[in-house]
């Protein structure tokens, strides 16, 4: 797998890169010959990833706007994959107050700050691609996910608006909105008992999402893949159904 020369892409930045979808995306993009900057909080995991792939590790909390600006401003990034995220499963009346801020900071504010930081360089070079890993929760009701759903829906709509704002440039925008994916972060958010039930189902794997990201990135220069919804074959969104 390699990028068409006509795209001109040489570099990428992936957040939430220490495991799951982020790590799989870093592996796919480095294998395609790009210089990939991998961002996450867990330095030990990033070092392992760097040793395995040759990526450039950045130990950062993406909700720390000033730290991200200091570390990343000035980098020439052609592809930004906003993958980092987190959820908390409970009705809003049971949400811990700090979790409300964490969910919004991680899934919404950090994404917008990174877009604002890296987009001007893409526009100046007239090439670039910004991706966000969204969720079916941003498009369909799911119990216990009010804050997560709100953040994902906001980013989805913002991407549509930002594509309008950059219309006429060669900057492309893609949301990848998956159903159930077997990732460490998701398992932690739902707890061990529900995770055990979840793993008994046929689920998407992180490499499935990385392949979807690459599909959008490698489209010809005149093509913008605006949104991809991807589910396990036994899951459907209407009413959040999962077949045995």
Features:
globular, 7-stranded parallel β-sheet, 8 helices, 44% helix, two-stranded antiparallel ribbon, Rossmann fold, 244 residues, alpha/beta
Short description:
By secondary structure, the protein is of the alpha/beta class.
Q: If you had to describe this structure to a student in words, what would you say it looks like?
A:
The chain is of the alpha/beta class. It has a single domain, classed as NAD(P)-binding Rossmann-like Domain (Rossmann fold), CATH 3.40.50. Helix content is 44%, strand content 17%. The chain has a seven-stranded parallel beta sheet, sandwiched between helices. A two-stranded antiparallel sheet has the order 8-9. Helix 3 runs parallel beside helix 4, helix 4 packs parallel to helix 5 and helix 6 crosses helix 7. The longest helix has 29 residues. The protein is globular and about 45 Å long. The mean pLDDT is 91.
Number of domains: 1
Characterize the overall form: globular
Order of helices and strands: EHEHEHEHEHEHHHEEE
Please summarize the sheet with the most strands.
7 strands, parallel
In DSSP terms, counting alpha (H) and pi (I) runs of 4 or more, how many helices? 8
Strand percent estimate: 15-25%
Helix fraction, binned, reads 40-55%
Layout of secondary structure:
Blueprint: E1 11-15, H1 20-31, E2 35-40, H2 43-53, E3 56-59, H3 65-72, E4 79-82, H4 97-125, E5 128-133, H5 146-165, E6 171-178, H6 184-190, H7 192-199, H8 206-217, E7 227-230, E8 235-236, E9 241-242
Parallel strand pairs: 1-2, 1-4, 2-3, 4-5, 5-6, 6-7
Antiparallel strand pairs: 8-9
């Amino acid at each position: 797998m390699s990028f068409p020369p006509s795209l001109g892409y040489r570099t990428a930045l992936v957040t939430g890169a220490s495991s799951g979808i982020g790590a799989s995306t870093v592996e796919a993009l480095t294998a395609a010959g790009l210089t990939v900057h991998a961002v996450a909080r867990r330095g030990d995991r990033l070092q392992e990833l760097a040793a395995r792939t040759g990526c450039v590790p950045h130990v950062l909390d993406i909700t720390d706007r000033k730290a991200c600006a200091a570390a990343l401003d000035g980098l020439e990034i052609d592809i930004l994959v906003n993958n980092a995220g987190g959820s908390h499963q409970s009705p809003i009346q049971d949400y811990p107050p700090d979790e409300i801020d964490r969910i919004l900071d991680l899934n919404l504010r950090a994404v917008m700050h990174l877009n604002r930081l890296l987009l001007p360089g893409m526009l100046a070079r007239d090439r670039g691609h910004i991706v966000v890993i969204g969720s079916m929760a941003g498009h369909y009701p799911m119990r216990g996910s009010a804050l997560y759903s709100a953040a994902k829906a906001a980013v989805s709509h913002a991407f549509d608006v930002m594509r309008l704002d950059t219309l006429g440039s060669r900057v492309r925008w893609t949301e990848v909105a998956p159903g159930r994916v077997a990732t460490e972060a998701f398992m932690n958010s739902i707890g061990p008992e529900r995770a055990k039930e979840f793993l008994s189902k046929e689920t998407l794997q992180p490499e499935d999402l990385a392949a979807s990201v690459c599909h959008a990135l490698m489209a010809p220069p005149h093509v913008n893949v605006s949104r991809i919804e991807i589910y396990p074959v036994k899951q459907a969104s209407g009413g959040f159904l999962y077949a045995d």
